[in-house]
Specification:
With 293 residues, chain B is an all-alpha fold. Chain B is built from 11 helices and 2 strands. In chain B, helix 1 runs antiparallel to helix 8 (187-209) and helix 9 crosses helix 10. Chain B is globular and about 60 Å long. The chains are: A alpha/beta (269), B mainly alpha (293), C mainly alpha (327).
Chain lengths: 269, 293, 327
């Protein structure tokens, strides 16, 4: 067992022990003189929720960016369902089933809430090329289907009343939820959320936890980067702790809370 | 052969110095505001006309006219910032650029109305006096003035930026506007200061360029795109880079004129620009800026 | 559907205008109007929808004009084949520029497109053996007359007929772009315009789509160039300077970036108004610059925004201006 994988066996499932859905080995990333990610390995199984935590500057977002394809690693390997990820650009990874949200909200501000979600259906349209110009039956069918599914997703995050508003006019908490809806629109097999609770108040965090739990019940695989320990304790199956770009500890939420190295890293002892 | 090479080098340095003066203004503005002022080169043209009228219509001293152009340039800078960039602050990345395109069209055609399309023969008292140098090369006193004044101004500016409090404050605002504001620096006042300095430089450059360029209201267009090329090659907001790039472009132009066809100078310079953008978009002396995702 | 109502009105207007304006001077202006509409609408596709600040659009106008003309006069290629080839060449060059500029954002792209436009202009000016340089190419013939059995011969030396041809194509091109923009492609381009990083996270290949937008827009501008050459009869490089690019940009901004119909009005307004003020000489260009600046400062959404505000005041029995794919 390598350093990155926790000492928990793969979760008991109905089949024989499956291969990890996402596997990363020895990832390194350097920016100028700073090594943001140093020798990180991890594995996530289908249906699991992995939380990545650590003090500010620990490299958590960088790790997510490496996994999603925004950055390419200087060294190391990653694979998703057996497909090699290194060298694959972000948009191709999205087509494989990797979706993500961003720490800094990156909505399409000048576009309506509904159209933000529909934009994420990019890979899922079923229209013959000529019908992009002459809008015939298949086009209309696709349009209706997209609208319907987008509204369903908005309902899931509680934004269906806001569908026709400009994304820029949403409140901060609503914008975060829209980000989630968009990521789900791509019908992902693995969802990566980067600090989804950042800036949310208590009630909003509760609602977020509730939504993620629902996703968990539907066997969605999730990687969460978070600061909010309540959230992490509630939803994570396993936790990876990073500090200064390195692997500090990995285990169940309970083990992480009790671990002295983790405590001192957070309290700076 | 050597004479020719030396002569072209001297010519290159002369034009290069002027380009540096114009491009520095652009890069300073970009450094604090992250905006492109398209009307910048028209300040150059106005500076040239101002110097012309001061010297010939009002009968003033040419050297004094350079100072006059400087002041007029400064005033224009104040105006453009107050009227365009201040109101549009923070709203959009590209709208101010387009607004300044509008201002540029306006200024050029207003000058056309006022001065007509026929080139003005701007001969300063120093245009024709020649100083013989070594190896058979020569330099007109006008060109010597250009090099001296430019070099002196750039040196002063450089010292100002590096050693005075205001200069450092300016650099602070360029790096991180919000934090600078938190530390008691008024970013808006500094932006205005930058504009005034930049446009003053442009006006001064115009006064010195007048005698060696074809002086029409559209003289700005010939210079502006080249100035952008220099700013990009040197790196947006990078003072040292702009200086090097400006001199480089001046030299390249000079050699191209001599060795190839004069009509090809623009193609060579902009070909270089495009090459630069393909390979090192952040400029010659690049600072790695990581995007915060 | 309301859209087809407007379409019918446009067709009628196009049919009727040359009959109302019998004056040869105004008929010529109509043709210039139609050409500018094609340029403005194609630039809006790249600028307003894909969000790419292309400051050198006139270069593609020029490439199309020269390419089609040289094919006809130098190689004897039939007009319409040359027309298509000229447009295709413009499109290919546009795609090349997009591939080159793929990594460039905002201001860098703006300067790169400017530099590119300068290079194209200089090439047209200096490649004398090919383009005759500043002397220009003369005696360019209009498109060949169309003789359908049983109908009178349609000769394009006639300004009215030329107008019908160009305006017809303008309408066609507008429809093409409008249909694309109301499809998922419009949503994809909007995504790229708003935020490329998150667009990529949805599987959007940003570079490929930028190349597509540039290619299509440039091809349309090149087509306009083919018409321009055969309409004006002479071709000089100075018709395709940066100033021309800025003129088209002004039309898009004044009309309303990203609305497609806005730039149509912007093109018409900024073609017709200067002609109305012709008596004022160069003052009209001062007005031009002032208009652009004031629009950006006070009504950045242009005519389209003004229309929206007016609609809200008057009461909304009209459909919203911009229909996305989801509506």
């Amino acid at each position: 067992m390598t350093l990155g994988e926790s000492c928990l066996p793969a979760p008991p499932t109905r089949h024989a022990p499956p291969a990890a859905l996402l596997r990363a080995q020895g990832l390194h990333k350097r920016f100028g003189g700073v090594e943001a990610v140093r020798d990180i390995s991890l594995a996530v199984w289908a249906g699991q929720v992995l939380a990545i935590i650590g003090p500010n500057g620990a490299g958590k977002s960088t790790l997510l960016n490496l996994l999603s394809g925004l950055y390419q690693p200087d060294a190391g390997e990653m694979s998703f369902d057996g497909v090699k990820l290194v060298g694959l650009p972000a948009h191709k990874r999205a087509r494989l089933g990797l979706a993500r949200t961003f720490q800094k909200i990156r909505l399409f501000r000048g576009v309506s809430v509904l159209d933000n979600v529909i934009a994420a259906f990019h890979t899922r349209h079923d229209i013959p090329p000529w019908q992009y110009v002459v809008h015939a039956a298949a086009f209309e069918r696709d349009r209706a289907r997209c609208r319907e599914e987008a509204l369903r997703l908005l309902a899931f995050v509680g934004l269906e009343q806001r569908a026709d508003l400009l994304a820029a006019s949403l409140a901060y908490g609503e914008q975060r939820m829209l980000e989630l809806a968009r990521a789900l629109a791509a019908s992902p097999r693995l969802l990566m959320v980067d600090e989804p609770a950042a800036g949310l108040n208590g009630a909003e965090v509760e609602r977020l936890i509730d939504r993620i739990r629902l996703l968990q019940q539907r066997e969605m695989t999730i990687i969460v980067v978070e600061h909010n320990m309540d959230l992490v304790m509630e939803i994570a199956d396993r936790v990876l702790v990073m500090d200064y770009g390195q692997h500090l500890f990995a285990g169940t939420p309970g083990e992480v809370q009790a671990n002295p190295a983790v405590i001192s890293a957070y309290l700076g002892a | 052969m050597l004479t020719v090479a030396l002569q072209q080098t001297i010519n290159g340095v002369v034009f290069g110095s002027l380009y540096v003066l114009v491009a520095l203004g652009l890069t300073l503005i970009y450094g604090v505001l992250v905006q492109i002022n398209f009307a910048h080169a028209d300040v150059v043209t106005i500076g040239a006309f101002a110097a012309y009228f001061f010297t010939f219509t009002l009968g003033g001293n040419y050297l004094v006219s350079i100072a006059v152009a400087l002041v007029i340039g400064a005033a224009l800078g104040w105006l453009v910032n107050a009227a365009i960039f201040a109101p549009l602050r923070g709203r959009s990345e590209l709208l101010p650029l387009i607004a300044t395109i509008g201002v540029s069209i306006l200024l050029q055609n207003a000058m056309l109305l006022a001065f007509g399309p026929i080139p003005y023969a701007f001969d300063s008292p120093y245009s024709n006096a020649v100083l013989r140098l070594w190896g058979g090369t020569f330099i007109t006193w006008q060109n010597l003035i250009i090099i001296t004044v430019s070099a002196g101004t750039v040196a002063l500016l450089y010292a100002f930026m590096k050693f005075t409090f205001m200069g450092k404050a300016l650099r602070a605002v360029a790096q991180d506007r919000e934090t600078a504001g938190l530390m008691g620096i008024n970013p808006n006042a500094l932006v205005m200061l930058t504009f005034v300095i930049a446009s003053a430089l442009a006006g001064m450059g115009g006064a010195m360029l007048g005698p060696i360029l074809v002086l029409t209201p559209f003289a700005g267009t010939t210079v502006i795109v080249k100035a952008f090329a220099i700013v990009i090659i040197g790196g947006f907001g990078n003072v040292e880079g702009t200086i090097i790039a400006g001199l480089l472009v001046g030299l390249i132009e000079s050699y191209t004129t001599q060795l190839l066809n004069p009509g090809l100078t623009d193609i060579v310079v902009f070909g270089l620009l495009l090459l630069m953008l393909a390979l090192r978009p952040t400029g010659l002396i690049a600072e790695r800026r990581e995007e915060n995702v | 559907m309301r859209r087809w109502g407007w379409f019918a009105i446009a067709v009628v207007a196009i049919a009727v205008l040359p009959l109302v304006l019998q004056d040869s001077y105004w008929r010529t202006n109509l043709i210039v109007c139609a050409l500018n509409v094609i340029l403005a609408v194609s630039l809006d596709f790249v600028l307003g929808y894909a969000g790419q600040l292309n400051l050198g659009h006139a270069a593609f106008y020029g490439i199309g004009a020269y390419a089609s003309t040289l094919l006809v006069m130098g190689l004897g290629v039939p007009f319409w084949a040359a027309f298509v080839l000229g447009a295709m060449l413009s499109g290919i060059v546009g795609m090349a520029l997009a591939i080159f500029a793929a990594r460039l954002r905002g201001h860098y792209l703006a300067i790169a497109s400017l530099g590119f436009a300068v290079i194209v202009h200089q090439v047209l000016l200096n490649w004398i053996s090919l383009t005759q340089g500043p002397l220009g190419i003369y005696a360019i013939k209009p498109p060949p007359a169309i003789a359908l059995p049983g109908l009178p011969v349609v000769a394009f030396g006639e300004p009215a007929n030329m107008f019908y041809l160009v305006a017809g194509f303008a309408l066609l091109f507008y429809l093409l772009l409008d249909q694309l923009v109301r499809s998922p492609i419009g949503a994809t381009l909007a995504a790229i315009r708003e935020d490329e990083v998150s667009a990529a996270s949805f599987g959007i290949h940003c570079t490929a789509w930028k190349v597509f937008a540039f290619g299509l827009a440039s091809a349309l501008a090149g087509a306009a160039g083919g018409f321009y050459a055969s309409f004006v009869g002479t071709l000089v490089p100075d018709a395709f300077t940066i100033t021309e690019s800025f003129t088209v940009l002004a039309m898009v901004i004044v009309g309303g970036m990203g609305t497609l119909i806005g730039p149509v009005w912007g093109a018409i307004l900024l073609t017709v108004l200067p002609e109305l003020f012709r008596g004022f000489g160069d003052f009209r260009l001062v007005l031009y610059g002032a208009t652009l600046t004031l629009v950006v400062l006070f009504m950045p959404g242009g005519i389209a925004q003004a229309a929206r505000i007016l609609r809200r005041r008057v009461g909304s029995f009209l459909e919203p201006a911009q229909a996305g794919f989801g509506q």
